[in-house]
Amino acid sequence: MILNVRDLRAKNNRMEFKEQIELPSLTSGRRDIVRAKPLQVTLQAVAVEEFVEVAGTLELQVELVCSRCLTPYNHSLELPFREMFVQDAEQVDEDDEHMHLVVHERVDLLPYIEETVELGLPYIPLCKENCKGLDSETGLNLNEHPAPPVADRIDPRLEVLAQFFEKQKKQ
User: Fold this and answer.
1) Over the chain, what HEC string results?
2) Mean pLDDT by 10 residues, the chain (171 residues)
3) What is the pLDDT of residues 76-98, one digit of tens each?
């Protein structure tokens, strides 16, 4: 997705982008993302004096794996997007992480879009906020199969000691 600053200034200083973008890098090397639909990009570029502001929304439907119960679930993201571009190095504000220097007349927006999507994904995906996870002994999903009441469990390594104390009580 390329923004040409010269074309933008020639078109009344305003340009709109509505596209679907495939992001294959989003799922590569990640175990928590099963699949992702194409990203819906709705952006508007506006040139004001030396600045070019690109703002809008990014919408994405992904299938994630819950980090507690390992169940796949659908998750939709609607992320705000805002980046500023300037052609004069003196205009760049070092404190503003959304302001970037344009060296040539063309700006590739894809790396900025990918960064916004990556940062917008949940760090720890959960199918629901109160997900109970998996049973540590049986491996069953506790959301579907509640755990039986916990009985007095004795560590198998200490079972002989427990038997010894039971004999002492009986004598």
Assistant:
1) CEEEHHHHHHCCCEEEEEEEECCHHHHCCCCCEEEECCEEEEEEEEEECCEEEEEEEEEEEEEEECCCCCCEEEEEEEEEEEEEEECCHHHCCCCCCCEEECCCCEEECHHHHHHHHHHHCCCCCCCCCCCCCECCCCCCECCCCCCCCCCCCCCHHHHHHHHHHHHHHHC
2) 79 86 84 91 87 92 94 95 79 60 80 92 93 89 82 78 88 79
3) 999 999 988 887 666 555 655 65
